[in-house]
Amino acid sequence: MRLDEEARDGIALGLGAIALEAGCLLQGFEKRREFRTKADGSPTTPADIAAEELILRRLAEAWPQVPAVAEETANAVLPGDLFFLVDPLDGTRDFLYGEGEYSVNIALVSAGRPVAAAVASPALKKVWIAGATAKAAAIPPRGGALDWAPVRVRAAPAGNLVALVSRRHGDEATDACLRELSIGTRRTASSAVKFCLIASGEADVYVRCGPTMEWDTAAGDHVLTRAGGCVVAAGGSVMTYGHHSRGYLNGPFAALGDAALAPLLNLPLAAA
Question: How far apart are CA 150 and CA 160, in angstroms?
C-alpha cells in the first residue's frame, strides 16, 4: 500500500465515505434503546454491531491485505505494522440517551502512528478526514456532494482557554491538570468530536486521565495533528497505537490545539 501524501489523502477520502455510510446506518437505530453490558462495564447495542460489520466489510473490500482492530468483534486481533483501528459507535451511552454527539471513528495506523483517518458525526451533520492534510465537510442531504474545506487549530488565547470536558467521564486527576491552565470556558462534548472541535479552532484543550481505548482516540488524534495540533502523553511523549499486549488501552493524554501548552501540563503516568 502506498503511503505518500497523495495516497494518504485518497485513503482518507475512502475512510470518510465508509464512516458516512456507517453513520447513516446508525441513525436508523437512534430510537432503539436495547443494549447489553460488556465485561468492562460499558454498554454495547445492536447499532454498534451492525455498524462495525459494515465498516469491516467495506475495509476488507477496499484494502483486503490490511487487518482491522475493532471495538466490538475484532478487539483481540494482532495489529501488524499496518492496520486499521475502528470504533463503530464512539459515545454509546450518549447514543442511548439520545444526546447526539456520538461518532464513527476509523484510522489507518502505520508503525504506531495514524496516517489516515475519518471521524463522522451524524447528529452534528459533519465529517472530518485527514491524510496528509485535515479537512471537514458538512454532511449534505442524501445524494449531495461533500464540500471539503481545510481545518486548522488556533493559537491558544491568553487567559481564556476553552476546555472540552466529557459529559459522562470526569476524575480528579483530569481536573488537576486543567487547573494548571488558564481555562476560561468549559464546554461539554462527547466522543472523538472533541479532537475535531480543537482541530477546527473551536476549542483549545481536552485532557483525559481516565481509561480510554486506542479506537477511541486514533482517528481524532490524526485529524488534530494534521490540523496543526498535537496529542501528548505523560512527559510530553507522542501517543502510539497497536499495543496488543495491554489490550489496546491508552494512558492519560492531552489533546491540544497549541503545542505551547504541553509543558504546562503534568499528566499522570497511568489512567485514573
Answer: 25
The number of C-alpha atoms within 13 Å of 158 and in the hemisphere containing its C-beta is: 0
Total domain count, the chain: 2
Question: 179 is in which domain, residue-wise?
Answer: 161-264
Q: How far apart are CA 34 and CA 186, in angstroms?
A: 32
Spell 136-156 as b/e; 16+ CB within 10 A means b: bbebeeeeeebebeebebbeb
pTM value?
Answer: 0.94
Of 2-11, 43-52, 207-216, the range with the lowest mean pLDDT is 43-52
What average pLDDT does the chain have? 91
Per the domain annotation, does 243 fall within a domain? yes
Checking 135-140 for CB contacts under 8 A at 24+ apart, the result is 135/12, 136/196, 136/199, 136/200, 139/20, 139/23
The total number of residues shown for the chain amounts to 272
CA–CA separation, 20 vs 254, rounded Å? 27
Could you tell me if 254 and 177 are in contact, meaning their C-beta atoms sit under 8 angstroms apart?
A: yes
C-alpha–C-alpha distance, residues 156 and 91, integer Å: 27
